[in-house]
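step=encode ok
step=design start
structure_in=
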């Protein structure tokens, strides 16, 4: 596999994406734990990421020297190129010509990195983002491409198979970048490019069997894609040694709880305990209006219920979770300051400490879209696999103010109408997440000859890559108007519909 050493670039995960798209397995390690990762993975090649620090400063991070002594190819990107140059005897200095954004490099020498992609004499667009630059190369290195602002835009020591690029091949604004990365991992590192989801599935099944042996495993289902894929995979591995527990807090969308139960029990024949805890959750939510108080209550109660159920089932040594790769990677922070809690996320993250069980986390190495692909590989229905994300606290955070059964029912109906229209219009897959919000505001309307005084419903739809930033989905007015008409006509309790035009930031995707 390939090891990516992370120096804190915003786009390190994109390097991993490109490597896997080339059919090669890789993992990311923060620079601080790179030595341990080197021993554990024994990679066939190493990629050094970019990062915000400056090599010209004494205390800035370095690549473990062993990386350069391991006899494997190394590709340094931006900061990675600079630490490589500095550590191998070259020199890096702060540049007075700062280059950001689009730039053009000219290829001046042939290199294995460019094989079949770039020829000598050609000019190609790349994406630069840097202040410092290499200005004396270490022995053995030659310039293979240059640009106006960066005479050392790409450098290589073909004998040792060390490469450095000052631009970012991992971003889409370097149009040939993915092919350069594929060249590095396949041609230079000699990896076959045969990593596939089917292969991953088989390897994981073997690994789960090995880890679990004859023990029993318990898995919490949330109704979402991740926990469902984890459960189905584990069931393929160990059959009925797995028991799934679905804590139904009554805050799911219309028909969702029934779907999960029938998918698992009927379609897959996986043992499933359906804990119907709606009353417990709604009783506890009575009188709670503060968003954080609602989130904390739901998170804690979820863990309580799950824990109790696990005890009742008894005998499980392992807890299975659908943890994904982005939750696992330690983020590399240079600011050091504490970050502000915007929202307390409800995840089953609190469970392992409480239950003292060993973890089975078969999706730890995967990105969200890879989990979807694995789900398809496991035969999960497309409608389930392609579902929009849904937050753990469910509808409770889409009903600002107090949550009641009545308000949940109203929201479920409005949300179902909205999503049905989105599906009918063929827009579902173009949207990251779409949902209705029920506001604690009543306004006056007129219906037939009568006055109405009912709730306002807000519609939200966003596009996003990872949920960290989001843009509103630009529906046309006719679509929104049709949805508004249907909701007001069909959902008793709502007489006005508005559309949320706020991007993230400054808004968040959910309203609480
Ligand atoms: P925000 O509202 O913070 O949401 O912009 C970003 C993404 O996270 C989802 N979300 C959650 N997911 N537990 C989850 O598993 C939570 O407590 C939670 N809160 C928000 C949200 O739906 C969006 O996709």
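sequence_out=
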């Amino acid at each position: 596999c390939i090891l990516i050493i992370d120096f804190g670039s915003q786009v390190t995960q994109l390097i991993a994406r490109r490597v896997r798209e080339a059919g090669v397995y890789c993992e990311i390690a923060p620079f601080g734990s790179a030595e341990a990762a080197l021993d554990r993975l024994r990679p066939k090649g190493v990629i050094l990421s970019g990062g915000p620090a400056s090599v010209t400063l004494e205390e800035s991070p370095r690549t473990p020297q062993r990386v350069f002594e391991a006899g494997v190819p190394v590709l340094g990107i931006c900061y990675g190129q600079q630490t490589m140059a500095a550590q191998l005897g070259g020199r890096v200095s702060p540049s007075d010509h700062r280059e950001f954004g689009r730039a053009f490099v000219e290829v001046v020498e042939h290199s294995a990195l460019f094989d079949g992609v770039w020829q000598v004499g050609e000019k190609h667009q790349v994406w630069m983002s840097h202040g410092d630059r290499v200005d004396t190369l270490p022995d053995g290195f030659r310039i293979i491409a240059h640009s106006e602002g960066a005479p050392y835009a790409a450098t290589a020591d073909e004998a040792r198979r060390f490469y450095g690029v000052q631009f970012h091949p991992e971003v889409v604004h370097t149009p040939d970048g993915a092919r350069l990365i594929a060249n590095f991992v396949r041609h230079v590192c000699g990896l076959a490019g045969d990593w596939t989801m089917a292969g991953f599935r088989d390897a994981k099944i073997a690994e789960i069997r090995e880890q679990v042996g004859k023990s029993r495993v318990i898995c919490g289902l949330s109704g979402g894609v991740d926990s469902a894929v984890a459960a189905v995979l584990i069931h393929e591995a160990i059959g009925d040694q797995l028991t799934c527990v679905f804590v139904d807090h009554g805050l799911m969308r219309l028909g969702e709880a029934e779907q999960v139960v029938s998918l698992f029990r009927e379609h897959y024949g996986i043992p499933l305990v359906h804990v119907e805890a709606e009353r417990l959750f709604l009783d506890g939510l009575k009188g709670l209006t503060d968003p954080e108080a609602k989130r904390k209550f739901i998170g804690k109660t979820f863990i309580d219920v799950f824990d109790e159920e696990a005890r009742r089932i008894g005998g499980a040594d392992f807890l299975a979770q659908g943890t994904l790769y982005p939750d696992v990677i330690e983020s590399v922070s240079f600011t050091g300051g504490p970050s502000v809690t915007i929202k307390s996320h409800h995840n089953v993250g609190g469970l392992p400490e409480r239950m003292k069980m060993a973890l089975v986390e078969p999706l730890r190495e995967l990105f969200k879209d890879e989990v979807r692909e694995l789900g398809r590989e496991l035969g999960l229905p497309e409608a389930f696999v392609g579902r929009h994300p849904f937050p753990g606290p469910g509808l409770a955070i889409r009903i600002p103010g107090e949550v009641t059964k009545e308000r949940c029912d109203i929201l479920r109906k409005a949300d179902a109408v909205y999503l049905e229209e989105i599906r009918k219009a063929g827009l579902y897959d173009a949207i990251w997440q779409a949902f209705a919000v029920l506001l604690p505001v009543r306004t006056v309307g007129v219906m037939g000859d009568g006055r109405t005084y009912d709730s306002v419903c807000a519609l939200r739809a966003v596009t996003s890559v990872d949920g960290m930033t989001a843009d509103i989905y630009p529906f046309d007015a006719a679509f929104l108007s049709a949805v508004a008409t249907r909701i007001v006509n069909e959902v008793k309790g709502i007489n006005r519909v508005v559309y949320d035009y706020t991007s993230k930031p400054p808004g968040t995707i959910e309203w609480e």
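step=design ok
step=annotate ok -> Residues 333-338 have pLDDT under 50 and may be disordered.
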